[in-house]
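Give me the fold.
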Amino acid sequence: MKRKAAKHNSEAKLLTQHWNRRKHTREHMKNVSQDWKVRVVPVTLISITLLFTALFLVLPLASVFAEAFRKGFVLYFASFADKEGHAWLAIRLTIVCALIAVPLNVLFGVLAAWCIAKFNFWGKNALITLIDLPFAISPVVAGLVLILAFGKNSTLGGWLIEHGIQIIFSLPGIVLATIFVTVPFVARELIPLMEEQGTLEEEAAVALGANGWSIFWRVTLPNIKWGLLYGVILCNARAMGEFGAVSVVSGHITSTMTLPLHIEELWQSYNSNSTVAAFSLATILAALALVTLVVKSYIEWKFKREREERHQLRPDGTFAPR
């Protein structure tokens, strides 16, 4: 009996040890799995993201500057002073188009955002869809549409040419193409911002006797200033870098070539000095992109900070003043 009891106790002890080892193994595997999820997965995803950014964003941008300065600073600055003056003509035309298109889009974007965010009317969803249309249509198609609408074979275009007004293959056509592709940027930044803010402050200003102009300058504009500036920065960057629609309506005429078109012309000349000149002029657009990113990041930080201060609670549970 004693031997049986001892044997039984020994088997029970071995069985208990076996189950404890299995339990310990399961817990160890669980901890390993959790450690893998906590450590390996984030590191892997971050590494992939950084590698993708370096290969497809940083490396091409760095190569633009490297090729521009490959033959020295003398040739780099000489690229801006060609004998025919095509480089400065392209730069000047690009700036003029941006100076015309951006303010018009700012005006339209503010008015459209005000109407959509503050009022309910028939066709509101259709207006939002039309504002987003340039995002869905290829810029080349947009240029072709402008040619069909204002070309010499169209009714309107023929009438304008008869009266001495040429749209296509001239500055007005380039401006129209630039306006078309940059329409959504300001409006799409302001619409959600103004919808979130609501109409309480404007209604309070009306109740206090303020007119519409005073309400806009003293109530609405201070609330949307960072979103408006953000939209202006993006709109300007797209206006100065637009290629597809402008390429179609310009006709690749020297007097109607913006900076991106002139860069393409230099690149396709297959000349060593022209290639360097193309990269040299491309550094302007690359620098514009970098400045846009810096300003964009600052605006996002400033807007976030101002928003947090606006919604900060006092110890007594009330909102802190602005």
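The two ends are 88 Å apart (CA to CA).
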